[in-house]
Every structure is written in structure tokens, then in C-alpha cells.
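for the writeup, i need someone to sanity check this before i put it in the appendix. the sequnce is what the collaborator sent (i think, or maybe the updated version? ugh). structure was predicted straight from it, no edits. if anything looks off just tell me and ill rerun, i have time this weekend
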Amino acid sequence: MARLTRAESQERNRARVLSAAREEFTELGFREAKIDGIAERAGLTRGAVYSNFPGKRALYFAVLAELAVREPRALGPEAARDARTALGAFARAWVGRLPLATDDGPGAARLATDLMPEILADERTRRPFAQLMKLDAILLGLALERLAPPGSPPVRQVRVAEAALTTLHGATQMATAAPGFIEPFDVVSVCERLVGAELGGGWPITPPVPPARPADEPWNPPSPGTAGPIDMVRGEPARLGGDGVVAILGLHRLEAVEEAVRAAPPGAEITAVMVTGDPGELAPLARLVVTDLCGCLRESFPPAAWPRLRVVLDESGAVAAAAGVPSAGDATETAVRVAAGRIAARADGRGACHAAASAAVAPAPPGRPRARRQN
């Protein structure tokens, strides 16, 4: 038998730790689970567990994120749907996963019982979670907007999405604390009735921001592949070599991506690249929250209605480095405009997404070779 490489051995040990942790959390719950117990189940040392995950909470987030990624989801139907029907289907997909009053013991259905208490326990997780919820609402709102009746005036639906997600997360907490208290189909009906509600919240006028700086730099993002970036919206490898706007956003600045979506020319590709200064704990949380939302979205909305926005979790920092951001953190907001396969404009700080998306980009001079494109 061929000897495993160091990388293969590390990946195998990480998988063993995740599997053992899932068993421990399922049987005992987060509170009673112990790192020593997880190590024993995995057949590894306590140190081996900590070499893969910084702590029990990070491991808990990673287990839930792994389940969200692997959960099979049917793709939405090809036939067009109206926004109310799609949001009702989204709500049904959501409540269909909730624990039931007849569930006995902690079990897999109750594995996420301690998720919200752990998020609330620390400002380091509360603030990123608030921005992840903003991103979820933007994704759901953009999908609702794409199902507007033909010829109707454009109406921003992000506030409707926020209200729907508030309802669904509240239902999740009640199902955990008081199983059987609420009828799930009542929750679906409430969400359906939100479509068309006049909640205000039209897209605000963006305050003056410095214009993007012209640039002429190579754009060589990581190629899609086994270990390449994944578009979390579509659940497939992200091909980032095309033209458009790439926003490098820390977990405290995720809502800024809507500025890029609203300011970009029609049809432009928009990519939100999530970065964090604490990848060990916050990257699994980000993967969990966004993957969970996108799984329900793909199940309930037709592909034609999926947002024209890609979301990438850049744990390694490779995409950020390609955009000229070698050291990204949770407060990062940098956006670049890619044209003719090169970075043609860039902006940093608050307002960067709007500035880069609205920048006037000159065509490439004749004869200049384009940067490499991804297959």
C-alpha cells in the first residue's frame, strides 16, 4: 500500500475528527461533549484534534457546516414561478428540517440546538453572524426580484427577505425550545403573505464615495478544481477568470456587496469573496450560514431566478491575494473591476464596492493579450 503524503494524512485525520465529533455532539449534545471523548472516538490524541480545530465551538460549527454541504438538495424546477410560490417553497424546505415533538433524545434533528446560544455567547461570533444574515437576505431578496411579473417596475425585495428569514429563524428557535408549539404550515403561509407587503426599504442613495482608482494589473485567480474556490450560491466550482466586479469582504462588511450589485452595469458578473481573520472558527460559521440558505434557495427557486451574484469563501486567502489584498481581515472592503482579463480599477474602504462597480472602464488597447482564462 502506498504511503500517504503529509497532506493526505492531515486530510484523513481531519475527516476522522469531524466524524467522531458528529457522533459525540449527536449523542451528548454540545454542552456535554468533550474534546477527550472526540479524540477517543477518532482514535487520535487530544493534540491531534486541536491541530485541526482551535476549540470545541469551532469543531461544532465545522460539523454543522459539513452536514449542510453534504445534505442532498433537489434543484428548483425549470418552469417559471412567481415570487409568492417560490418563497412558500423556500419556507417549506426550511421548516421541513425542524425537530419534531416526537423526536426522542438529542438525535441528528436536534444537533443544531446549541448553535444560536453559541453564536450569542461571544461578540466575535455575533457580529459576523449579523452580517452573514444580511448576506442571506440579499441573496434571497435578489432571487425574489428576478421573479417579478414582466413589465412591472423594479422593487427591492431585501426587506421582505429579512422579514421572511426572521420568521423562519424564530420558528427554528421555537421548534427547539417548545417542539409542537407551532404548526409548520402556518409559518409557510406567513412567509407567502410577505410577498407584496409594503415594507419600504428601497435602495438608498449612495453617499458620495471616492471614485475607483484606474489600474492595469494582472488578474490570475485560482483555477476551479478539487481544491479551488466554490460558488456557494450554485454549489459548483467558481470560475473567476471572467470580467466583472470582485469584492473582497471581511465578515464585518458583507452587506456592502449589495452596493456592487445595484451599481454594476446590467449583466456584469459580481463575486463576493468572504475573508476573515479567524478562519479556524469563523470560516465554518460562514460556510454553514450561507450554505444552509443557498440549499433551500436552489431547492425552491428555478435556476433562472438565482441571484447574479457568486459567493466564495476564501479561507486560504488565494483569491484575495490575486486581487492585491495579501492580508485580509474581518473589516476588509476592497473591490476590483476586471476587464479584458486584467484588473482595470480598484477601490478600498467603505464604498469600495459601489466605486468599483460604477467605474468607467476603458477597453483594452488593441494587440494587448488577455490574461489567462479559466477553462
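The first strand starts at residue 213 and ends at 218. The chain has three domains: 6-70, 83-194, 213-358.
thx in advance!!
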